[in-house]
Each structure stands twice: as structure tokens, then as C-alpha cells.
Amino acid sequence: MNYWLMKSEPEAYSITDLKRDRTTLWDGVRNYQARNFLRSMQPDDLAFFYHSNTTPPGIVGLMRVVQANVLDPTQFDSSSKYYDPKSTPTSPRWQTVEVEFVELFAEIIALDRLRQQFAPEELQVVRQGNRLSVMPVPSEIAHQILQLAKS
Questions:
Q1: What does the alpha-carbon distance between residue 50 and residue 5 come to, in Å, rounded to a whole number?
Q2: Are 86 and 44 within 8 A, CB to CB?
Q3: How far apart are CA 146 and CA 106, in angstroms?
Q4: How does pLDDT run across 68-97, given as a tens digit for each residue?
Q5: Which of 44, 31, 43, 18 lies closest to 135, judged by CA?
Q6: 43-70 as b/e, with b when 16 or more CB fall inside 10 Å?
Q7: What's this model's pTM, rounded to 2 decimal places?
Q8: pLDDT for 13-23, tens place per residue?
């Protein structure tokens, strides 16, 4: 099993939205490195749900990948802000995953706390200027984050 961190602005889609919906397609990612991480995901991988562009930003819960290598339907929808005219059904450019709700943490693990606990080499989200919306989390760091969530 692999661990990931996936960001979403709470106004766009929050952990409470996922809790209500139970599952969702993680669509609209339009960064090639993030897309490649999405392509690497497998069913049963766990992902930390990170609220970005809010005060304070941080990890708010946990979700599980239930389906991998799903075509992102927004790439074909000309009315979507994520439409990609260079992407076609025969040559799609954007894949994603379906995730399910696992847990809402009792308290946010704020970015400031993550920066106190982890070096940029250990956890990419603490790296200054990191804008990537999907990133891997090493297993040993993921276990430490899960412990932080329980404390």
C-alpha cells in the first residue's frame, strides 16, 4: 500500500463533502507531475485529505483509493473549466482516481505543525512554494502523521 497527500480547497470540495458523498472522482487535476502520481495510485492506497487555500491549511482526514486509472471526464466537457481541447477519447491526457471517505480527523494537522515535525525532504507539502496538488508520502512519514492525528 502507498500513501499520498491530495489537496482541495474546502470551498471547491471539502472532507465534509466527501463524508456526505462517501465516494468521489478526484477530477480536474491539470498538472503533469500530479497526473503522473494519480496514474501511480492503486486500489487500497490511502491518501491524506489536505485543505488548501484556507486558514489554517492542513490535513483534515483520510481517504482510500477505490478505483485507479479512471479517465477524467472533465477533459472532454467543453463547458468545464478543466476542458482540454487536445485530449480526445482515443488519446486522453488526463487520468484520475475514485476515492472513498475513511476518516475525519478530530483536529486539523495544520501546515505549521507539519513544518515543525517534518523536513522538506521527508514531506513535500512543507517545502516552501510547493503548489503540487497530489504527492506521495513515504510510509514511515505517513505512520507518523497518523499518530499525530490521534494525539
A1: 7
A2: no
A3: 12
A4: 999 999 999 999 999 999 999 999 999 999
A5: 31
A6: eebbbbbbbbeeeebbbbbbbbbbebeb
A7: 0.94
A8: 999 999 999 99
